């Protein structure tokens, strides 16, 4: 699993990346009440706004950690957005992306680097 | 924080921070022709009595609707408003220029909005209603843009029975969203014509009942056809009292219902402020514009009211907000709610029945005038008639006799070529004497 400074995580399986927000981000947001996941087929560049996550008092953009094409959005979040709080780095994933360039994945932080980054905030 | 006006030094400081030399620099985007070069020619000061006298003289040039027989409708209706309404809305807890939404301090205001939403949902037969919009026409435009967000399609078809001002406002606002608006030619009884215009990029069809000509339409089939093609049905109503008798938009399959609520509790007031009603199916609530009040429990388990789903709105979601509207017509919504509470369910039904029977009396009387043709096949309290002469000229002539005979359709849509069409409305305030005066004046005008 790799991480971005915007608190997204990425897990790679072949050329399919599963993307979500980190436990730290979920905790900062508070109770998540709605998630708008991206449309299948949408082409993303790293850094593009990909989804929106809403908590009781805020709405935040979720950015694509790497470039590629959306192959699936997590439909289960429609009826159970609280999954993002319960299992942010598991069942609370946002989207699956067919990535264009594995180098983008390698360039992201690993968990140790992300934990160190959190220590600076 | 005390509120004090800005000093010249404050202004200079602020301008220098943003890199502007003068206030005028902030308006460079406004074309010169649209800017007023000098101040209005007003005296800088005058005594109170003098001002009162002058303004009273100006006001006396207007002719209030209550000054004699009055048959204007066309989107704004003269109804009786109980004295209680005015009394309650003027209480200082309610009468503020700022709508207080903070739950810690504004439970009264929030509860009223919640009651208002409950009433609007019940009237429209839909699951969820917002805390009101500016008026019916902007509510219509917002509904069209909401349909674009829900369906991710880009076209809207407006029926020829939609009030021309509503069509114009919708075109103006939706144009900025890049929507394509297909506005059908004026038609007295053809709401279903929108169906033939639906294609794979149609977000919604917009129909009105009672429509601009007063025609009442059961839109159930139109709803079915729209849904079969993946489009939403938006139903517009400009006379809210009609909800007391007619099948509700929700019952007929509407996805979104919008209405002008002025008829209930809000005076004509020379055209505004009014109150827009907006309701939809619950599954679309996240795409709904405007403020939404919800019922909840506080930390001690007591019932309380809060604004809810606020993350749709621009103070939180910025450019991704569902709408630019972050406010509502709070005071007019309050007036609406008080009046409707006084009427109750049966009272509204009785009021609507009375409106309809007065309008039928008016229709029968007008139909008896040779050369006058009733155009509206099914109506509530307003209908269109064809006159043997130009309608605007007839109205102008009758004004001289103290009678406001109605709204010439040409006033709403000069380009429609319906110069001999007059829209006439009757309400509970219309008397037999009013009708007799109108008929006598018309016969005189037509040399009968």
Strand and helix map with partners:
The complex is a heterodimer of chains A (121) and B (448).
Chain A: E1 2-3, E2 8-13, E3 16-21, H1 23-29, E4 32-36, E5 43-44, E6 49-55, E7 59-63, E8 68-73, H2 83-86, E9 95-99, H3 102-106, H4 111-119
Antiparallel strand pairs in A: 1-2, 2-3, 3-9, 4-6, 5-8, 6-7, 8-9
Chain B: H1 8-18, H2 48-59, H3 83-89, H4 107-124, E1 128-129, H5 136-151, E2 155-158, H6 164-175, E3 180-183, E4 202-208, H7 220-228, E5 232-237, E6 256-260, E7 276-280, E8 293-297, E9 303-307, H8 314-317, H9 330-367, E10 373-374, E11 382-386, H10 391-399, E12 407-408, H11 409-412, E13 421-425, H12 432-445
Parallel strand pairs in B: 2-3, 2-4, 4-5, 5-6
Antiparallel strand pairs in B: 1-7, 6-7, 8-9, 10-11, 11-13, 12-13
Helix pairs in contact in B: 3-9, 4-9, 5-6, 9-12
What does this structure look like?
The complex is a heterodimer of chains A (121) and B (448). By secondary structure, chain A is α+β, with helices and mostly antiparallel strands. Helices cover 21% and strands 36% of the residues of chain A. Chain A has helices at residues 23-29, 83-86, 102-106, 111-119; strands spanning 2-3, 8-13, 16-21, 32-36, 43-44, 49-55, 59-63, 68-73, 95-99. In chain A, strands 1-2-3-9-8-5 form a six-stranded antiparallel beta sheet. The longest helix of chain A is centred in the C-terminal third of the chain and has 9 residues, at 111-119. The mean pLDDT of chain A is 92. In chain B, strand 4, helix 7 (220-228) and strand 5 (232-237) form a beta-alpha-beta unit. In chain B, the strands form three sheets. In chain B, strands 1-7-6-5-4-2-3 form a seven-stranded mixed beta sheet, sandwiched between helices. In chain B, strands 10-11-13-12 form a four-stranded antiparallel beta sheet. Chain B is globular and about 75 Å long.
